[in-house]
């Protein structure tokens, strides 16, 4: 039996909700994952189909999740159970949100490991800036191999890896423990505007000093011959993961929204802002990479290895590198906060403990899992926790967490949300919340009932087969 909450903390304004939701969506996925996916999937063809998928897949599911939360005004599982009960459906539908809550905590545990890499690079660039000054390029006099070796060197230092990841988790916990309006909203209200300012300034600098025309051509000169099934699947996956869907974050954030907010309009703004950041992020990264003559298909090493090498040849390279990773840290923190909040709200309601206690308990769990994930790069490199499952047989602890959540829990959760909203929940209750009218409402219902679950099912099956 859930324990009743005290008067609920919530967003103080529509602007606060928008910034928090955009902060949840805008994270490492927009900068690190988008640039990696665009670089390895032909650039423009991937970008065009990605935008298409955000509109037809991402936004409908985003609206479905936020309206569940706003209707329930509670933790994600309880919000689903409330809507199910009012629709004369089984209370067990609440398990779809419980799946998302667990998934978000698992994602947080290894997300903070990557957040720790960002903190490490901030420290490295700060030290270089102090040592060599502002005017010249970064890491003056050091060979490119040394700069590319920063990340492998970090991986080889178990204590540093664990320490950086736990430091990022502690920062996340600090803001979540302060509550919705005083903590999560504060982070979004200050860090997201700062993030956008840094993103625009660094992009302008990169376009001015880098290979702007080459980057623009790579991203926006659409070559439909490159639109292969593999590229389309990658674009659909990026659109889905970028918007933080299937992990109960948007259901939880929706629970703090007032009745005066039009959820359809705000979902459009959130999706538009998230896509804009991804595209600007591409314009920020690729001119610098092209100007340095580096490969755009460097994969995950593009941000943490190729870019630091590129900063070496740029005026004010240390300063730009420092500002770039500060910007990435802001985006990562707003997302990590949204990953911790669903389980915090759920455990707080379930146990009646205060927010500080629940935050500390959950961070203890995430800290243990995150430590094991960090050690996957060194001390536990040969540990295969899911060796008994063929598709995860070769995955270390970090990769196993990533694989289980990305390939199973997130798409399955989103598919079940679509089925619940499209087929199970009372249509009158859904219509009261979604903010759509006429043909647009009917089109949204078609997408949620048919197109979205089918496409998400394809993503899930393909991911499990790869």
Automatic annotation (TrEMBL):
It is found in: Membrane. CDD domains: SLC6sbd_Tyt1-Like. The chain crosses the membrane at residues 16-35, 47-72, 93-123, 158-177, 189-211, 231-256, 277-296, 316-340, 352-377, 408-425, 446-465. Keywords: Membrane, Transmembrane, Transmembrane helix, Transport. The keyword Disulfide bond does not apply. The keyword Transferase does not apply. It is a multi-pass membrane protein. This is Sodium-dependent transporter. It comes from the Bacteria.
């Amino acid at each position: 039996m859930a324990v009743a909450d005290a008067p609920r903390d919530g967003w103080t304004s529509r602007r606060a909700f928008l910034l928090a939701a955009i902060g949840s969506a805008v994270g490492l996925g927009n900068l690190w994952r988008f640039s990696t996916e665009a670089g390895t999937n032909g650039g423009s063809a991937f970008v065009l189909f990605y935008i298409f998928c955000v509109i037809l897949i991402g936004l409908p599911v985003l609206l479905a999740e936020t309206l569940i939360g706003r209707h329930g005004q509670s933790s994600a599982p309880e919000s689903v159970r409330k809507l199910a009960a009012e629709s004369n459906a089984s209370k067990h539908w609440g398990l779809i949100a419980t799946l998302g809550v667990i998934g978000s905590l698992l994602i947080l545990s290894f997300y903070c490991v990557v957040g720790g890499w960002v903190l490490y690079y901030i420290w490295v660039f700060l030290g270089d800036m102090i040592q060599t000054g502002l005017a010249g390029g970064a890491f003056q006099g050091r060979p490119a191999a040394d700069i590319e070796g920063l990340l492998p060197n970090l991986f080889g230092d178990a204590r540093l890896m664990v320490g950086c990841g736990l430091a990022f988790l502690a920062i996340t916990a600090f803001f979540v423990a302060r509550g919705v309006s005083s903590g999560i909203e504060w982070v979004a209200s200050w860090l997201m505007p700062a993030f956008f300012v840094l993103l625009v300034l660094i992009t302008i600098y990169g376009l001015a000093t880098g290979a702007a025309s080459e980057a623009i051509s790579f991203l926006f000169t659409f070559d439909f011959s490159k639109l292969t099934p593999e590229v389309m699947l990658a674009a659909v996956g990026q659109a889905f993961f970028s918007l933080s869907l299937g992990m109960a974050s948007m259901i939880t954030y929706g629970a703090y929204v007032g009745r005066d907010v039009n959820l359809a309009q705000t979902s459009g703004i959130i999706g538009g802002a998230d896509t804009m950041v991804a595209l600007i992020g591409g314009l920020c990264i690729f001119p610098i990479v092209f100007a340095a003559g580096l490969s755009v298909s460097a994969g995950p090493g593009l941000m943490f290895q190729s870019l630091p090498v590129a900063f070496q040849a740029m005026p004010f390279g240390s300063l730009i590198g420092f500002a770039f990773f500060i910007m990435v840290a802001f985006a990562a923190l707003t997302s990590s906060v949204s990953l911790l909040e669903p389980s915090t709200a759920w455990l707080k309601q379930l146990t009646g403990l205060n927010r500080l206690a629940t935050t500390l308990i959950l961070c203890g769990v995430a800290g243990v899992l995150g430590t094991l994930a960090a050690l996957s790069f060194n001390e536990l490199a040969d540990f295969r926790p899911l060796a008994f499952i063929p598709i995860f047989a070769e995955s270390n602890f970090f990769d196993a967490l990533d694989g289980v959540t990305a390939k199973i829990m997130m798409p399955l959760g989103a598919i079940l949300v679509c089925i619940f909203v499209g087929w199970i929940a009372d249509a009158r209750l859904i219509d009261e919340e979604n903010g759509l009218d006429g043909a647009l409402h009917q089109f949204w219902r078609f997408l949620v009932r048919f197109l979205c679950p089918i496409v998400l099912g394809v993503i899930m099956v393909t991911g499990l087969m790869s």
